[in-house]
Amino acid sequence: MTGRRTASDDPAPTRTDHHEKGITMDVDLTGKRVLVTGGTRGIGRGIVLALARAGAKVVTCYRSDSEAVEGLVKELAAIGGDHHVLKADVSDPEAVARLVDETEARLGALDVLVNNAGVISHVPFAELPLDEWRRVIDTNLTAPFLVIQKALPLLREGSSIITVGSRAAVVGIPLRAHYTAAKAGLIGLTRSLMKELGPKGIRVNLVAPGVIETEEFEKASPEELERVQTRYRGLTGMGRLGRPDEVAGAVLFLASDLSAYVTGETLHVDGGI
């Protein structure tokens, strides 16, 4: 496992303003110690940056080297604080063990655990190979099991476990039976762990995004992007796609004491789809 450490000076102010988006986040997580899996792209990146701006000390991980990794390191350094970006494939039990051990070495313990890492593919069910089924299930469902189980000794009373699921889990999507099954499994995992870990003072919740406009949309042609946006404008109550920072807002709520009596819940962040 390799690590990239950012600036370790005092955290930046905890108020995060998104004037251009009309969103202001005032959640103060100063001193909270957080592990976020899959934090260099898309929703995960939005979550990591929001947590850092709120004053948390953040460890996150990535599977493959990319410009996105270097970009996140630079953004976290600009925010300031004690943050670390580590390489780890969370579908690999040995890599998970190393990730949690490294997190303990750097942060000592955890107040918040965010399971975000995931993969998706689009394959007709009749043609879905077993290897692809296992890849998607392992990354989206088995990995949170591995990470939570390994990280349990680092969590204390008052800690919060948050898993990023999907609105797809309760509606189903053609060509994504493996993905939908994995995300549906996270709901059951959340409900069971809520009851098992509740007596220890640990809360367990799920955030279920709808269609979120991440950098993946930049790969689409203008025509394809307009087609997708037009479709979801008609399907959502808000009349638009979501943004990573809007999912991050839900995570900040569940990470904070504002949600001290919220557990076992699935919080849909889907614009009313």
From TrEMBL:
Q: Which PROSITE patterns match?
A: ADH_SHORT
Region of interest: Disordered: 1-22
The UniProt entry, under Pfam families, shows:
adh_short_C2
Give the Ketoreductase domain ranges.
32-210
Segments crossing the lipid bilayer: none
* Family under the similarity heading: Belongs to the short-chain dehydrogenases/reductases (SDR) family.
- Name of protein: SDR family NAD(P)-dependent oxidoreductase
